[in-house]
Design goal:
single chain; mainly alpha; 2 domains; 4 helices; membrane; taste; transmembrane helix
Length: 109
């Protein structure tokens, strides 16, 4: 564990504080997700109302936001994400940027 902090706390305490921040953000995201889901399930608003659309977007986005926070709060996962992004940049745009698409692109030959 590296001691990159400028404070006088130990690295163990810093790691625990970082973990608590991640857990609290997960808790808040799940609360917002639950409230938006309750609003959708109770049919308070019509389906075309702006509030209903906003609740749908929140419910759909919460799992992705949870994953992003998890990746960005963990240095090893962040490093792996950077490696994957660098690897994905190597593939041409015409095939969708995917190594699978490159292997299955037999129609252009």
């Amino acid at each position: 564990m590296q001691n990159n902090s400028s404070s006088f706390r130990s690295p163990c305490v810093e790691a625990h504080i970082q973990a608590m921040k991640a857990i609290m953000s997960f808790f808040l995201i799940n609360i917002v997700n639950f409230i938006a889901l309750l609003i959708l399930l109770t049919n308070i608003y019509q389906e075309t109302a702006a509030a209903s659309v906003a609740c749908t977007i929140i419910v759909d986005a919460c799992p992705s936001v949870h994953s992003i926070i998890l990746i960005l709060s963990n240095p090893k996962l962040k490093e792996t994400l950077i490696k994957v992004m660098r690897y994905a940049k190597q593939f041409p745009k015409r095939s969708g940027g995917s190594p699978i698409a490159l292997k299955l692109d037999w129609t252009t030959h």
